[in-house]
Amino acid sequence: MGLDPSNIIHVAITPCSAKKYEITREELVTGSMLCTDIAITTSELAALLKKRNINIASHSGSFDTLMSTASGGGIIFGNTGGVMRAALRTAHFNITGSNPPSNLLDLQKIQGLTGLKEASVTIGSTSLNVAVCYEMRNAKMLLDQVIDGRCKYDFIEVMACKGGCVGGAGQPAGSSKIEKRISALNAADVQASNRYSHENPEIKAIYRDFLGDVGSPAAKRYLHTTYNDKSNLILSV
Ligand code: SF4
Fold first, then answer.
1. Which of 18, 80, 109, 126 could bridge 119 with an S-S bond, Cβ 3.0-4.6 Å?
2. Domain 72-199 CATH superfamily
3. What is the DSSP-derived secondary structure letter of residue 205?
4. Which atom of ligand 1 lies at the shortest distance from residue 164's CA?
5. Alpha-carbon span 91 to 35, nearest angstrom
């Protein structure tokens, strides 16, 4: 778009209070710029809107490009099993050349408020064991299996919060709402005109015009990161 990156203020509105720390991580700095400048939680945004008497429902308009189109696969990222389901949809397309049948599209076994879920799926001639977990005690159990060489899973999704990001600490408190939020995301996915991340026209355009192929040097530079040991931060608290 020909914009000077230093003139862009990138604000993340997020269910995740950990994002406030995350945006300052040195692994997410490009040059001397933060990739995300400000992170505010959904609760903070709601409080701000109330304080300013802004009724968001009475406003109309459209998002700018890059952020205007969401696939169902992107929408369900916010709940447990959603990242796995979206990734398997695209894996099915990449392996077989066609979108998945409904049983893989929805993959009921890895949905819902159970802390550790698993499923076996077949894509083309490939069989996969997948696991989905939330809360760190479940993640630890899986990671111990990986470290011990006992892990039977090919693909593991971990979300720290109960139910996934819908239960993030930046959301209004109250776990009774988590199930409703999961249902809302799944309903939005079912109703989406496009349920596949790989069919999102704006994502396709970014790859075509800017990033190049999946896994290209540019894609790795802008989309990939590394995670360094931060346990000293926990130990020093
Ligand atoms: S699961 Fe929780 S900690 Fe992880 S990104 Fe989502 S809100 Fe943040």
1. 109
2. Fe-only Hydrogenase (Larger Subunit); Chain L, domain 3 (3.40.950.10)
3. H
4. 1
5. 28
- For the chain, domain boundaries: 1-64, 72-199
Question: Measuring from each residue's beta carbon to the nearest atom of ligand 1, which residues come in under 6 Å?
Answer: 15-16, 18, 159-161, 164-165, 168
- Local structure of residue 211 (DSSP, 8 states): I
Which atom of ligand 1 is the closest one to the Cα of 160?
Answer: 1
Q: Retrieve residue 26's tokens.
A: 């040195």
124: number of CA atoms within 13 Å, CB side? 13
Tell me the whole-structure pTM to 2 decimals: 0.90
Q: What is the pLDDT of residues 15-74, one digit of tens each?
A: 999 999 999 988 888 888 998 999 999 999 999 999 999 998 898 888 887 778 899 999
Nearest protein CA to atom 3 of ligand 1, as residue = 160
Pick the closest to residue 70 from 59, 82, 60 (CA basis).
Answer: 82
